[in-house]
Amino acid sequence: MQESLKDLEMTYSDSARVLLTVKSAEMITREEDRKIIEEFPKGLEVEFYQQDLRPNIWLKAGHALRFPEEKKVIVSQHVQLYNAENDKLETSELIWDEVNQKIYTDKFIRLTQPSKGDTTYGFGFMSDLNFTRFEVKRKFSGKIEEAMLRELSSSGNP
Fold this sequence. Notes:
The protein has 158 residues and is mostly beta strands. Helices cover 9% and strands 67% of the residues. Strands 2-3-6-7-5-4 form a 6-stranded antiparallel beta barrel.
């Protein structure tokens, strides 16, 4: 079984309260090993809403897989997550665990916090679904990272 939807906008709600909207150029629903998989091969944009119907978190990614039975979403390819404070997380992959109400990754991340004038680089990230309480697992200074990147690029290493 496989179904395809083009140019979609979905609204998810609970008890008549809008939780989030998803926009995507394409969604493919298929069955693998008796489990449903929803794929967004052309990426997606998600807005998460507060109780007063204002968006407070925004997510963009070039690709996504949703596993409804596991209540898990894996977004990848140029992932960007923003919150109302204008904090911005950039990474190559992010996992949204609906059951445990967590967003996390073990991949390289860049976290920009304009209100603090701070940019943090590291590996591994975990946050609540509101992207207000979060931690970078193995972080290091942005200045050190920028110097390391310049040194690597001038030495010809990847």
